[in-house]
Amino acid sequence: MSRTKTRSTRLNPVAHALTWLYAVLLIIPIYFLVISSFKNNSEIFNNPFGLPGSFTLDNFVAAWERADLGTGLMNSVLITVIAEILTLILAIPAAYAIARAKGKAGIIVERFFALGLLIPGFAALVPTVILAIAIGLFHTREFLYLFFPASVLPLSVILLAQFMRSVPVELEESAMMDGANRLRVLISIYTPIVAPGIATVAILNFLSFWNEYLFVLILGGPDPEVRTAQVALPTLISLTETQYGVLLAGALITMIPVYIVYIVLNRRLEDALLQGAVKS
Questions:
Q1: What pLDDT, in 10s, does the model give residues 160-203?
Q2: Does 99 share its domain with 177?
Q3: Shared domain check, 160 and 27
Q4: 8 and 146 share a domain?
Q5: pTM to 2 decimals?
Q6: 106: Cβ contacts below 8 Å, ≥ 6 apart
Q7: Considering its fold, how many domains does the chain have in total?
Q8: Do 221 and 136 reside in the same domain of the chain?
Q9: CA distance 249 to 227
């Protein structure tokens, strides 16, 4: 016991040092992005880590207007929110059915969902384009509403099923003895208990939907009314003279919603990690 305590005491400073080193490695790129978004090209190349001469919003205004980021952000929010809602509506009942299935049925269905994780994204690109053309939804937002949930359902269902298996069966049996049906049990018992897991899945899906570029570029098409912020952002790149301050300002604008969502769901995510640690 004393040897273990002594060893952990010795490793404590090392662990703290590595943690701070990792934090610095994360902070440096963010610091560079933020300060460079207020600079012009000469300031970025001559003094990359120095503070800008003036903190004006000219780069942000230029990025917003040139790339039409207002429309892009609205499309990103609309597509992400609708796809997120559809994903959770489909994944939560499916995960509940798998978690409470008796015999080998639940295992077989769960493995069927796991097969979706083995399909590379590029392998699904051509069939997805053909499908979009066949149903008349190519270059539309409506197809993205349907495609995004399909792309993340396997992982979402598997993760939520693991969280729901941690809920005691006695709670469900007690509720059903009081007259509650399956839907009421799912809504009133399982959903509040596995809320941290739902938040974790929601964050993972949000990052996947928000940062998607290739599929949105091909399936959404060049129409400015359909393209998302991630597709609109590269329009700031010029073959002659790219203003990197404007480009970085646009990138910073598209990152803000990600931080807002993380701040809102941060506590739920920590609860999910804590539950996993206690369970293990």
A1: 998 898 888 888 888 888 888 888 889 888 998 898 889 889 98
A2: yes
A3: no
A4: no
A5: 0.85
A6: 97, 98, 99, 100
A7: 2
A8: yes
A9: 19
Q: Which residue has the tokens 């480009």?
A: 247
User: Which residue, chain included where needed, has tokens 């301050």?
Assistant: 245
Q: 138 lies in a domain?
A: yes
Domain of 193: which CATH number? Answer: 1.10.3720.10
More confident residue, 8 or 78: 78
